[in-house]
Amino acid sequence: MFDRIKNLFAQADDSKGAVNHDAAAVEINDDLINEILNVQILSGTTHRIAELVTQRERVGSTLNLSLKLPAGFTGDAQALHDELANALEPRGINELNLHLVSQKVSGSAAAQKPQPAPENKLPIVTDASAPVPTSTPTRPVPPKQTELKAHPRIRHIIVVASGKGGVGKSTTAVNLALALQKTGAKVGMLDADIYGPSIPTMLGIAGRTPLIENDQFVPIAAHGLAVLSIGNLTGDDNTPIVWRGPKATGALMQLFGQTNWPELDYLVIDMPPGTGDIQLTLAQRIPVSGAVIVTTPQHIALLDAQKGIELFNKVNIPVLGVIENMALHVCSQCGHIDEIFGAGGGEKLGAQYHVPLLGRLPLASSIRINADTGTPSVVAGDAAAPLYEQIALNVIREVEKLGEVHERDGKRIF
Ligand SMILES: Nc1ncnc2c1ncn2[C@@H]1O[C@H](COP(=O)(O)OP(=O)(O)OP(=O)(O)O)[C@@H](O)[C@H]1O
């Protein structure tokens, strides 16, 4: 399996070294898209995809496609989506919205009840008499967070996200995980930051590769945490990977699902920065308890954190709160604390979206130095450690509040 995943990484990683958080610009040519649809065969049949298209619309790099499936088609709709999306991606299509309608089967087969789409899979509308929609086809309805099955061994999954890169998301995530552990909880960490997997360096496990047991990755132990990072698989830590759309989400879902996580109270996921399709898809497919948004005072001003909150609101993931990083400047000479970017941004943001401010962290060289040398603040016990520990307590408080609400409303209790 390792080779398979490594290959996936190698294929995707076609431009190592180039830091590029957005899709590399590929000029989209509709004739080339036609060619793909003409050569792709619907698996298990002799039909070319092009024959089955009833409606097609491209908006920028998003392709909306309606397909009328042949009678009796029993294939896996999600696999069909992923296969097509992978084929179209090199042609510049970053998002594929597939609307599938299967034709009625006559006779006894028709009497059979349509099979419900398996959990987390794309639905197929099993009624040919229903007209194929003439309006813009809708994106296949993803499962709601409350419908996702909880992970059997993980009580709470917390995603740490940011609207933009470089705000200190990974540093904060790693210290949050360690501070949660300090409360006595069992904690794991998944580094899903494909653009800059820095967690191995921060936890002193750069260059180590995970063992494989029963076709599953065994997380690497680091300061007591169970850790898995994309950086531990690509071999070259900190090498950014330019991945787009379905390839990125596919690989990240594989990492999450094919890792033998031990019994954990918390799994902290360091998300890729930004609020695009990858983040949205991950948020829709992983049973998340809540999200923590990391931002800086400048980014609050630039509305980036708002975008993060809105993304999670859109997919009904509770935002546990906002952490304002590099909010204060501590003078290394005299210890004077200066709010160089002004005060109150995090509070205002929290008030606007009804999410708490979980904490504010200073811009401090000890935070950077300790993270860069593999002993983050919480392990090193520097001046910022108590701040991270307080943030962890605030996160636990918010998660517990949610648990009470879910229990009351009869929803999934993580
Ligand atoms: N509070 C802080 N004080 C000083 N340096 C910090 C602080 N937080 C983070 N840094 C430093 O800022 C740099 C970027 O941090 P980090 O890698 O955590 O950001 P990020 O948001 O995860 O970036 P990306 O999303 O692009 O991977 C690192 O060198 C880190 O040590």
TrEMBL record:
CDD domains: Mrp_NBP35 (cd02037). GO terms for cellular component: cytosol. ATP binds at residues 163-170. PROSITE patterns: MRP. Residues 128-138 have a biased composition (Low complexity). Keywords: ATP-binding, Hydrolase, Iron, Iron-sulfur, Metal-binding, Nucleotide-binding. GO terms for molecular function: 4 iron, 4 sulfur cluster binding; ATP binding; ATP hydrolysis activity; ATP-dependent FeS chaperone activity; metal ion binding. It comes from the Bacteria. One of its GO terms (biological process) is iron-sulfur cluster assembly. It holds the Pfam family ParA. PANTHER family: IRON-SULFUR PROTEIN NUBPL. Homodimer. Binds and transfers iron-sulfur (Fe-S) clusters to target apoproteins. Can hydrolyze ATP. HAMAP family: Mrp_NBP35. Belongs to the Mrp/NBP35 ATP-binding proteins family. This is Iron-sulfur cluster carrier protein. The lineage of its organism: Bacteria, Pseudomonadati, Pseudomonadota, Gammaproteobacteria, Moraxellales.
